[in-house]
Amino acid sequence: MESIETPGYRPLYKQVYDVIVRRISQGEWRPGQSLPSETALARDLSVSQGTVRKVLDALTAEKLLERRQGKGTYIAENTQERALFRFFRLSRPGGERLIPDRAWEKVRLRPSRALERLKLDLGRTDKVIEIRRVRAILGRPCIRETIIVPAALAPGLESLAPLPNTLYSLYQSRYGINITQAHEELRAGLADDDDAAEIDVLPGQPLLLIDRVAVSLEDRKVEWRQSRCQSADIVYAVNLT
Amino acid sequence: MESIETPGYRPLYKQVYDVIVRRISQGEWRPGQSLPSETALARDLSVSQGTVRKVLDALTAEKLLERRQGKGTYIAENTQERALFRFFRLSRPGGERLIPDRAWEKVRLRPSRALERLKLDLGRTDKVIEIRRVRAILGRPCIRETIIVPAALAPGLESLAPLPNTLYSLYQSRYGINITQAHEELRAGLADDDDAAEIDVLPGQPLLLIDRVAVSLEDRKVEWRQSRCQSADIVYAVNLT
DNA sequence: GAGTGGTCTAGACCACGCA
DNA sequence: GCGTGGTCTAGACCACTCT
């Protein structure tokens, strides 16, 4: 069963969970592909089908897998739509979801700053890729973003312009990085002259400020993103459950 | 098995799920109490223990139940701490959670307004209870709230002052209403003179505006809450998963 | 030791997708 | 018709709590 020892005793299903997550994160199974069937996995790992099922169900709940009855179990793909739906929370008041477009972007590779190293757990000499961009909604520039990515995680990202609308699908397809969670902090702020020059807002008007750190399946901090959003007819929607 | 028919065919575990949710929402089992054991429930409902387990695990994931190995399965209580942790997302930048206190409050019973009827699915003649209050953090008034509750759901609420810090524990303990989810929309706004008079902010400073509708286990809209939060050193924290 | 939930197994049958 | 995941069952043993 591929080096599953018993360090102080972990339940079997947790050991199976770790094996499967490791295989996915090491690229043994790739996004969009199907896993072996439950019975094949159970035989391979020398556990019962029920134990495999418990793990696959858990990973499905975490949105890392997708199960299709009659077909198989697949590695979830961070498609554009899916990533937008999952990690982009802006909508019209009342609920209608909004889809942002790129207005413009500037990408460069540069040394990291102290705050960036703190946010992303980087070392003193690590470089970062800085993405500055403005996003538009229905043709109207509404969001200014500064995105910081450790250069070591995404080599060559700075020369891939134009970047796709959702970076997370790029991280997954090109760099094998699965973004599984993000931590956000929201504040209110005031638009300054730079904001007014780039997005559809006047100086002194209120902006919604979003500070996000995105984390990968392997628990690495992959991206620090600061967004400044026009807040006149756009809201940030959350469901607390 | 208590009137479980097969309307077009629902899986057994869904039928069991419905029965258990109904018993909880009808008060047959009350918060803090323990449910019968898995084996007793299985016998009672004429299903296998595994099917009962699947349902209890699901309800535990939804935070409606709590399971304690060796002791039993309990109806989750919306204690102050728990409700704050689950539904109050304001914290210091960086993550330290904040605990609000009541500064003052005014409660009254009055006819509903059109927007309130829309938000809470009320009829033309339904009355509401309006709670206006200011909450303080570390002694500093930071949040202005207006809370609207259908009078029919919480009779006598207007004469219960002073209200507890977390209304949700009161809804549960006094009215048998379990708040299981809430939908929030966040915007940025500017402080006006009324804000400046009541909370620690100057006119024209940015405020975080939160619009929340809380929903019960039975899918009734129980509360519409509008909050205006000082946003200088308070952030709204979200984990996207 | 008795009773509870937690883990694990083995096997049956159903529902779905596809060739 | 075959292979897949989805549901359901029955039973064994473990880990924890309380008396």
Short characterization:
2 copies of one chain form a homodimer. Chain A has 241 residues and is of the alpha+beta class.
Protein described:
The structure is a homodimer of 241-residue chains. By secondary structure, chain A is α+β, with helices and mostly antiparallel strands. Chain A folds into 2 domains: 12-75, Arc Repressor Mutant, subunit A (Orthogonal Bundle); 80-236, Chorismate lyase-like (Chorismate lyase), CATH 3.40.1410.10. Chain A is 27% helix and 34% strand. Chain A has 7 helices and 10 strands. Chain A has helices at residues 12-25, 38-45, 49-61, 80-87, 114-120, 167-175, 193-198, and strands at 65-68, 72-75, 90-91, 100-111, 127-137, 140-150, 179-190, 206-216, 221-230, 235-240. In chain A, the strands form 3 sheets. A 6-stranded antiparallel sheet of chain A has the order 4-5-6-9-8-7. In chain A, helix 1 crosses helix 3 and helix 2 packs across helix 3. Mean pLDDT of chain A is 94; it is low at 1-7. Chains A and B meet through strand 7, strand 8 and strand 10 of A and strand 7, strand 8 and strand 10 of B. Strand 10 of chain A pairs antiparallel with strand 7 (179-190) of chain B. The first copy, chain A, binds a DNA duplex (19 and 19 nucleotides) through residues 11-13, 37-39, 47-51, 53-54, 56, 67-73.
